[in-house]
Amino acid sequence: MDKRLDELLHLLDLERLEVNLFRGVSRDIGSPQVFGGQVLGQALVAASRTVEDRERVVHSLHAYFLRRGDFNAPIVYQVERSRDGHSFTSRRVVAIQHGQPILTMSSSFQKPEEGAEHQAPMPDVPPPEELADVGQLSAEVLERVPEHVRRFFKHYRPFEFRHVRPPDYRNPEKRDPVKHVWFRFVDTVPDDQPLHRCLLAYVSDYHLLDTANLPHGQPFFELQMASIDHAIWFHRDVRVDEWLLYAIDSPSRSGARGFARGSLFKRDGVLVASVAQEGLIRERAGGWQGARPPGAASQP
Hints:
By secondary structure, this protein is α+β, with helices and mostly antiparallel strands. The protein contains five helices and twelve strands.
């Protein structure tokens, strides 16, 4: 297995401290604080490990980011077993660091059930094979961004992104708040649906909030950006080691907040998940300190 993916799977393999208590470590991805997707993914792992019926998989989660995470300290996840019903299971998780909650999350799990289906169509975009990996553009980008931003771009991620319309981080143009990004993990992930959904929760925190900045054309390092809340609805089974299209749009930005929503499609057009996020977006003097890396949400 690719070392980068192996490290991420290890990151999500939480230590059980008690029946409903887990502990996780953090991974430095080049941002000033713990990546919000990491806390989200670990919280979902903690919740999943208290669901005794393994047929039940998560179908939705709703989370609030409360404080910045410190990647030099462990995070404790406390799970409340809210309900175990005939078809649905509900869990509430509080992520705690330095004695304070940094995230709260509610999640719901469902036993597989048949029913009528429909879905929105997938946007008509070029396939990933016709697009360049973001990593292939990094050398060009690194020449034009401030030194304090380069650490994030130099970090090797366990997945690849291919933008239908590659961004210019140094001199962004004003454009419609719409973004299409193909992504997949760099190696085969074990055939475990709960794990694939936890990994999808992890990577879903990329590219959402900065979509709300596209109509304004502001370089991200001139902004303070942080996730406030994050929601995911899992509609169908998913594999994160196969190409997925992240179709994102931002209906609103106001009150120093940006709102974005995303649809995740398999390459055959099947809609597997929907995502929504609101986050803080403030203009700031200075640059990187406290700012959020491009495509990766932090915590307020």
